[in-house]
Amino acid sequence: MNPNAKSKKPSLFSRFLNGIETVGNRLPHPITLFALFALAVVVISAVCEAFGVSATGEIINTSTMQLEEQTIHAVSLLSRDGIVYMLTQMVNNFTSFAPLGVVLVTMLGVGCAEGSGYLSALLRRAVSVTPKFIVTPMIVFLGVMSNIASDIGYVVLIPIGALVFMAYGRHPMAGLAAAFAGVSGGFSANLMIGTLDPMLAGISTEAAKLVDPLYEVRATDNLYFMFVSTFLIVLLGTIVTDKIVEPRLGAYTGSMDHGMDASAVTAQERRALRAANWTLLVLVVALVALCIPSNSIFRNPETGSLIDKSPLIGGLIPLITLVFFVPSVVYGRVAGVYKGEKDVCNQLSKNMNTMGSYIALVFVAAQFVSFFAYSKLGTILALNGAEALRASGVSGPVLMVLFIIFSALVNLLMGSASAKWTILAPVFVPMFMLLGYSPELTQVAYRIGDSCTNLITPLMSYFAMIVVFAKKYDERSGIGTIISTMVPYTLFFLVGWSALLVVWMLLGLPLGPGANLLLG
Prior knowledge:
Keywords: Membrane, Transmembrane, Transmembrane helix. InterPro entries: AbgT. GO terms for molecular function: secondary active p-aminobenzoyl-glutamate transmembrane transporter activity. The chain crosses the membrane at residues 33-55, 97-119, 126-146, 152-169, 176-196, 223-241, 278-298, 310-334, 355-374, 394-414, 421-438, 444-470, 491-511. By secondary structure, this protein is mainly α. The chain has one domain (11-252, 265-507). The chain is built from 21 helices and two strands. It has helices at residues 12-26, 30-50, 80-95, 98-115, 118-129, 135-145, 152-167, 172-185, 196-208, 223-249, 267-291, 311-314, 316-335, 341-353, 356-375, 377-390, 396-411, 417-434, 439-452, 463-471, 479-507, and strands spanning 54-61, 66-73. A two-stranded antiparallel sheet has the order 1-2. Helix 8 (172-185) runs antiparallel to helix 10 (223-249). The longest helix has 29 residues, at 479-507. The chain starts with 11 loop residues before the first helix and ends in a 13-residue tail after the last helix.
């Protein structure tokens, strides 16, 4: 927050956010902090194993997709096996950390788009034709829609959101926050079926078979609710950005250029833009054309799907990188930025140089996430919490709201949406089915809670990357800055989205094609 922005006594809510930021930023450097988190997990896991901490429940075996009743015991990292695990898996934890490869490969293309001047020129031209009032909803909407392509929004849209706001003379941190809110807070919402839908539906189906062996949850069974949710998230994200986050940030006083206008685009840049944009169009049209045939190499060879386990989704990161890289090289060549292939190679090296702090942070963050998973502490907490909710005795919309809150809290401890649902679905889907509620309804409630707290949990895979992006615009920013900025989104999304589900239940609306709220 910019201290110069305080023109009057801050509200109680603002003081609360300021307190979060102050405390959070007084914590050690993020690299040190994640190292301390990892160390804490090591110690706590040993204590929990010594005291025999455990939990029992039905859990889906992800290898066989069969339900198995298991007793999960805390696993010590200070035992012989634990120490061997830490030593032998440390490198693998780092290199196999999912966001690492995604971010680095994507930055090869996005970095060229920025370094060549293509992205800057494109944004300056966009400013001249795009009304200022639609910028925030546009960024949030694109963030929500980006989840159809899995995690690509994190590494592409969030940094672009900051640049777009700068192009309009607005605070880049507000643009980053708006994009982050759409990409992560609205991760489950979409106007179409995304990669998450079939994944969760498969787990829900297996859990439902505990009660009805013939029950099937389809990928489209949450479509109606998530379609409407998209507009709700865009509305709430816009209000929070424009009315809470940006006013709190104040005027941007950083050293980076902002407030660009179209007049700054020279004749040579316009020629370069035309050449690059035509190149981009040809690439996109060619990609779409290759996807159309029923035997396309981009389709799932067994189902013909372009979404579910298809080469298109599996190879999306390299494709996105090429879509950024090729037009950027064309732009740089025509604009005179790149004289030859050596200049392009130097730009690629520069792209990787800027990611040094992120790579260092990922190393320790990956150890923390891996150690926490190995210790089984998150699974034990989830199963024990589920048992407490089962014993609460409440029903109806109140029960679903409690489950949303519970899912949101579990999300603070476990990062993967599918991993959490693998644990929670066998407990809650059958339990709610016996109370008359459909698995589709339970799945919707879980998705709401799981999405809302993505914005404030360091266990979210891309959280470390967001911290690095923020430091580009504010060197003083840290984990406290990110969390305090995103808390309003979490609260508004949690309350607004829960209210939408309550209204949906009271009206008895279907959640998707043929997917009802109640059984029978």
